[in-house]
Amino acid sequence: MIVKMSKVRMVGPKECSDNVLNVIQQLGCMQIERFEEEIESPEKRYHVTKKEITEKVYLEEFKQNIEELLSYLPEVEVRKSYINPVNVLDFLKNLVGKHKEHCKHIKEDINNLKQNLSSLEKHRSFLTAFEDIATEDYRLLSSDAVGLILKDKKYLGTLNSLVEEITDNAYEVFTRILDDKSIAVIYVFDERFTEPVRKKLSMENVKEYQFPEELESKSFFQKLAYLSDKIKNLENEISAKENELHNFAVRWLPVYQSVLNWINARLKLISAKNIIYETKYCFVIFGWLPSRDLEKLKNAISDHCLEEIDIKELEITQADLNRIPVMLHNSTYFKPFSLFTSFLPLPSYTSFDPTIFIGIFLPIFFGMILGDMGYGITILIISLAMIFLSKPDTTVSDAGKIFSVCAVYTIIFGFLYGEFFGSFGRHAFGLEPILVDREEEILTTAYLAVSIGVFHVLLGFVLNGISSIRSKNLKSLGTSIAMTVLIAVSVVLFVVLFKGEEGLLSMSLIWIIVGLTIVLTILGGLIAPLEILKSMGNIISYVRIMAIGLASVMLAHVTNMLSGKVGNIFLGIFIAVLLHLLNLLLGVFSPTIHSLRLNYVEFFGKFLESEGKGFKLLKK
Amino acid sequence: MEIVWKAFAAALAIGIPALATAWAQSKIGAAGAGALAEKPELRGTIIILVAIPETMVILGFVVASLLLFG
What we know:
Strand content of chain A: 5-15%
Helix content of chain B: over 70%
Structural class of chain B: mainly alpha
Shape of chain A: flat
Order of helices and strands of chain B: HHH
Number of strands of chain A: 11
Number of strands of chain B: 0
Oligomer: heterodimer
Strand content of chain B: under 5%
Structural class of chain A: alpha+beta
Distance between the termini of chain B: 18 Å
């Protein structure tokens, strides 16, 4: 629900303004705002002092340095610092530059070492791939080799021809696929062909695999041993540097984090000062806070011995309605449903919190569509597992809570429809439909769905009327009343005509509709009558409750029929489980989307005003 | 013969809107997927947009039901 807000004005001696802002920030329940129309002649906007500007510049520079320092540090779990940030501010300001340089230096060293390591690992990977051929002695003694890396195997044929031509077919080629899917190639031939082969490859723009200079004179195994040693040393060096940074973070991060939090809070407070007003001796603060927190604010101010501060709740005027910040607060039942409303824009203050309506109607529509005790019980078990196996207040846990409610409604409607895994319940337990047989009474189910649509759409117009009263918009109120009556009369007319009772009653109803259409045109302009057609379309749209439900029933029916005709009990059970599982998946996805759509488009479109402003609190 | 015409009319009543809905949803879905890649916060709006053309097939279904059972 939308939390009731109070508009407040706080007046007090100028020297207390800092303390009052501090108290507001600590409470974290008020949004400070400028109200130009409320200020009187001696009051003017707060003039920021030179001292405050200097402090702001000092803190911003300090903040920048700390943030840079923190960017070099690893993420470690740190203890809470109990040092008062104010006491160590100057000390740390002198130290942060040195610390920043120190950590920057270590970080750069680590990056350089990692770069070297990556390059050496590439060479080692190349050599390791050919470790098996290097064990053959003759190749190590009288032969030479040229290594290449190919991105594609298709070039291998051309290269072979080149080498074949020079060595007169006295060569061996070895290929290996490396970890990055590139192809490592080694040509082994007599030493005397080394130079001609290299020259030819260079002429054809084929780049030979190059080892670092220090490896050039070494044999294959010497290269491998050298690389392994070097890599080990580098890894140790990196580990030592990272440990150094880790130890630094464990020692200093809590202090710097605490100082950074303090600086952020202080900067927010200095910025908030720009929004307040002052006279020669007084300060004036205007703002919004939840009405329930007004007493809390008064008590906190008096607790801080600021009795001379006057806190007054001001009257909310018509002009204020569009600027009241909106804060939503819902009970434990409705809270998880905000998962479906969090991506909607904030409702305006005079409108309604959509979460409540989603919380009420989504599970009902879901239950009406799926309406099967077997599916309901399965969803309930899965959703309870989601709640108990996940961490509280996570998306999974919230989804579990929503679907557990939906599952309960599915069981209730399943009982009313007499369905347990489709028609299985009827055959196995003799279940009978109490409300309606969805398989047989298709039109009755459709009328039931449309009647729910009539109720839902009419409720939307009634809520729009209430919203209009709150925002004192008489024209909108008139339109809502006219639309509500018009839809109700149209429904009665439809029933009368459907029953074939034409005559005075139907003529009277038609004249009422004509009259209301004229009223609507006067109130809402030429486009208003179109709203009638739109609303009729919206009502018929609720037939989807029946249509999707019927699809689910039929699928369950086909599943039971198929599994019964297989002739083998185990195969039958397997098919039944598989197809019911598929139906269940569809049965969870489809009703959710369509129930949401009925709420978002058909229902919210009638009353929800989405122009709310967020509540920006002054808090730490 | 009348029942054949009724069944044919019902098939048209649901078939044509179903094709229209499918065409509209394919266009909206493709555009929506593109929009989601850039602005994931639009997912709610896109779900609504994709579901909107389904009204056509629902209305077709109502007409078909009335033709067959009404």
